[in-house]
């Protein structure tokens, strides 16, 4: 994809196998022309940093018993070479009896990194393990941060040369609090320096907002709740939305 | 020669021009607030309808320093800032300790406590954003009074849900709030669904801060276009405002060439201790000073930090506000009707909880009788009557000073005397 003429990269977040395996693959296939990166969610029983909307999706996926690992195995063709970041909570990916990190890391062809939002908040001591595991599978690291992260930690994360550092703009996905996002993005940018990509997400729902936030110092923007909301009303509606976001960046 | 206990240099220091946000300097990331897993609506998003925008932004800012608006800073000066740093010579003498005991006296502020430090900016932002009714909870009435005063400075009246046990026993503060045009309602009340539900089961319920918060939130939700909910503690932005205490204290210590070894404050939601201690923590992080031992003192009857759990819980009894990660005895805990009513809260601010978890703040719990004795000793020796809440810190300081005596150590202790107890006759009556 020609990024030279673009103001930033666009990613969409979609939980694996949502709304069903077939539509999921179709969404990947048809949106790949607009999207620089897919952020694929591992269905979780406890997606604590997500808002009610995405939580309901997780709940329905978990209770449907869909075999999302096999969906992940069969989706490579639909990805069309677009980069993938898997997003999953620590317990689901690296918890005691979970081999999911390993399974996913060895399954997805264009996987760049596995993002674990609670890693540095609830499982700080497991940072090295995460880094080691990522390098075992030849993938990069990527880190989730919020505006409540210590400066030193953020600067240190940048030194690991991750694929990106993801700033959660809001306290949870889908929320829309009156926070001075441009300022917070500016602080994050300063802390991580220029050599590492700054990704942003949570509550980005309009082309103007997308453009403004990317212009303020971020490199990649992820669209989650708003895309999924539209997807529930029809795949074309969702794709039209993503196309408008894509066009906003040209 | 009579020793002057007031530090002359006090008057030379400036009221700070910024507040200090500790999050960028914490040893670990501050866990974000969350919605309960089974929530159908986002309680996080609901904050939009409850709090002034500017305060939401301060809660989630990534900046280390936030400028104090000129109007707020001017009012800080009018209501008594900077507050004095006082050496308690006579208390030291009566204990026969080699320790130096200083107290930062927030009780001199117009409302009688540190609560005014955050009441002023909270009322200011609400007024500026066009709201016409300030709604809150209060325990002993210190917060309710502070907000009533701050609101009336901007011409905005307050509605205060006051825990029933205090409504009955802290008569003066109820009167003083009303003088400022506040509507004071004993909680649980029959004007909210939450209150009615409780009264049905238990008509004599003494109330709790958790219940009063739920009532205040419900009251705002009925008319979010004109009302705002303004909490007296627990939120990170409240602590942010309270850092004026510590920022001043650092300058005052600098002026006399001293530095505290121990910093002690009582904890309700954690704002007065944090407001005093966090700027000293910054001095440590920036390599300018050692880290004083920070001691949080709670009531043994509401032992959230000493015997509670570190987990996600709602700050209000009915789960109307997002959950925060904190030390807590649980939101359904029914606190005994102690007279240090400002400590009758089931949790503790998230940042302070994290520092306790990381071993950077120690915790002490005391029973009401020992606390009252300490308050009386302080009053007899210093002539200053500490608030029942602050008296918890006084007792801890006395214990530390006596320990220093046993060891023969000339340590320096700093207490946050967060309020005066002149309107707490219920406490001193015993
Ligand atoms: C005088 C005084 N000190 C302390 C407190 C406890 O609150 P915090 O821990 O937020 O300082 C209160 C609360 O009402 C109070 O009135």
Domains of chain B, number: 2
Proportion of strand residues of chain B? 15-25%
Count of DSSP helices of chain B? 17
Tell me the distance between the termini of chain A.
Answer: 12 Å
Oligomer: heterodimer
Provide the gyration radius of chain B in Å. Answer: 20 Å
| Most extensive contact | A-B, 33 and 31 residues
The helix/strand series of chain A, from N terminus to C terminus, equals EHEHHHEHHEHHEHEHEHEHH
So, CATH architecture of the largest domain in chain B? 3-Layer(aba) Sandwich
The structural class of chain A is: alpha/beta
Name the CATH homologous superfamily of chain A: Aldolase class I
Provide mean pLDDT of chain B, rounded.
95
Question: What number of structural domains do the residues of chain A give?
Answer: 1
At a glance:
The complex is a heterodimer of chains A (250) and B (430). By secondary structure, chain A is α/β, with parallel strands linked by helices.
Q: How would you portray this structure in words?
A:
The complex is a heterodimer of chains A (250) and B (430). Chain A is α/β, with parallel strands linked by helices and 250 residues long. Chain A has one domain: Aldolase class I (TIM Barrel, Alpha-Beta Barrel). In chain A, 44% of the residues lie in helices and 16% in strands. Chain A has 13 helices and eight strands. Chain A has an eight-stranded parallel beta sheet with strand order 4-3-2-1-8-7-6-5. In chain A, α1 links the parallel β1 and β2. Chain A starts with 8 loop residues before the first strand and ends with a helix. Chain B has 430 residues and is of the alpha/beta class. Chain B folds into two domains: 236 residues, Rossmann fold (3-Layer(aba) Sandwich); 167 residues, Rossmann fold (3-Layer(aba) Sandwich). Chain B has 17 helices and 14 strands. Chain B has a six-stranded mixed beta sheet, with helices on both faces. Chain B has a four-stranded parallel beta sheet with strand order 7-6-5-8, sandwiched between helices. In chain B, α12 links the parallel β9 and β10. The longest helix of chain B is centred in the middle third of the chain and has 21 residues. The N terminus of chain B is likely disordered. The interface between A and B is medium-sized, with 33 and 31 residues. Bound molecules: pyridoxal-5'-phosphate. Pyridoxal-5'-phosphate binds next to α6, α12 and α16 of chain B.
């Amino acid at each position: 994809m020609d990024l030279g003429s673009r103001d930033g990269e666009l990613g969409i977040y979609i939980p694996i196998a949502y709304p069903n395996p077939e539509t999921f693959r179709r969404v990947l296939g048809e949106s790949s022309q607009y999207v620089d990166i897919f952020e694929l969610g591992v269905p979780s029983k406890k997606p604590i940093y997500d808002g009610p909307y995405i939580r309901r999706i997780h709940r329905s996926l978990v209770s449907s018993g869909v075999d999302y690992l096999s969906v992940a195995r069969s989706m490579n063709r639909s990805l069309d070479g677009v980069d993938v970041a898997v997003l999953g909570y620590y317990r689901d990916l690296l918890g005691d009896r979970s081999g999911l990190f390993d399974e996913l890391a060895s399954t997805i062809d264009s996987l760049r990194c596995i993002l674990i939002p609670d890693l540095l908040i609830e499982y700080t001591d497991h940072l090295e393990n995460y880094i080691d595991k990522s390098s075992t599978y030849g993938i990069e690291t990527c880190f989730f941060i919020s505006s409540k992260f210590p400066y030193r930690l953020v600067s240190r994360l940048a030194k690991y040369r991750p694929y990106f550092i993801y700033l959660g703009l809001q306290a949870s996905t889908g929320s829309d609090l009156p926070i001075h996002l441009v300022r917070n993005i500016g602080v994050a940018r300063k802390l991580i320096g220029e050599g590492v990509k700054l990704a942003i997400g949570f509550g980005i729902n309009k082309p103007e907002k997308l453009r403004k936030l990317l212009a303020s110092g971020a490199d990649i923007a992820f669209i989650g709740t708003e895309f999924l909301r539209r997807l529930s009303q029809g795949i074309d509606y969702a794709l039209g939305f993503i196309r408008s976001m894509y066009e906003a960046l040209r | 020669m009579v020793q002057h206990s007031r530090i002359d240099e006090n008057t030379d220091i400036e009221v700070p021009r910024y507040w200090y946000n500790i999050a960028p300097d914490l040893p670990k990331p501050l866990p974000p607030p969350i919605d309960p897993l089974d929530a159908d609506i986002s309680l996080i998003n609901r904050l939009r309808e409850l709090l002034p925008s500017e305060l939401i932004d301060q809660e989630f800012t990534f900046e280390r320093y936030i400028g104090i608006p000129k109007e707020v800073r001017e009012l800080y000066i009018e209501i008594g800032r900077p507050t004095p740093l006082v050496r308690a010579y006579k208390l030291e003498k009566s204990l026969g300790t080699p320790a130096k005991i200083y107290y930062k006296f927030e009780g001199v502020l117009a409302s009688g406590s540190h609560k005014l430090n955050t009441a002023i900016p909270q009322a200011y932002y609400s007024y500026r954003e066009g709201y016409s009714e300030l709604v809150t909870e209060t325990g002993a009435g210190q917060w309710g009074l502070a907000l009533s005063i701050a609101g009336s400075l901007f011409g905005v009246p307050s509605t205060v849900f006051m825990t029933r046990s205090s409504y009955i026993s802290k008569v003066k503060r109820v009167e003083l709030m009303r003088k400022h045009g506040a509507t004071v309602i004993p909680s649980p009340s029959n004007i909210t669904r939450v209150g009615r539900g409780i009264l049905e089961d238990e008509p004599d319920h003494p109330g709790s801060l958790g219940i009063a918060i739920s009532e205040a939130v419900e009251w705002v939700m009925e008319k979010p276009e004109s009302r705002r909910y303004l909490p007296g503690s627990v939120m990170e932005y409240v602590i942010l405002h309270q850092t004026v205490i510590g920022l001043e204290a650092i300058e005052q210590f600098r002026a006399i060439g001293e530095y505290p070894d121990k910093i002690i404050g009582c904890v309700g939601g954690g704002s007065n201790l944090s407001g005093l201690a966090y700027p000293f923590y910054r001095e440590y992080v920036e390599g300018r000073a050692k880290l004083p031992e920070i001691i949080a003192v709670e009531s043994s009857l509401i032992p959230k930090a000493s015997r509670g759990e570190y987990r996600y819980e709602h700050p209000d009894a009915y789960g109307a506000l997002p959950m925060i990660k904190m030390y807590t005895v649980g939101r359904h805990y029914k606190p005994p009707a102690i007279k240090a009513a400002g400590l009758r809260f089931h949790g503790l601010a998230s940042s302070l909880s994290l520092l306790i978890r990381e071993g950077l703040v120690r915790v002490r719990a005391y029973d009401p009788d020992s606390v009252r004795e300490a308050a009386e000793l302080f009053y007899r020796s210093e002539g200053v009557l500490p608030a029942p809440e602050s008296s918890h810190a006084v007792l801890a300081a006395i214990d530390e000073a006596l320990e220093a005596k046993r060891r023969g150590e000339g340590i320096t202790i700093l207490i946050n005397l967060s309020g005066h107890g002149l309107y707490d006759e219920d406490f001193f009556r015993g």
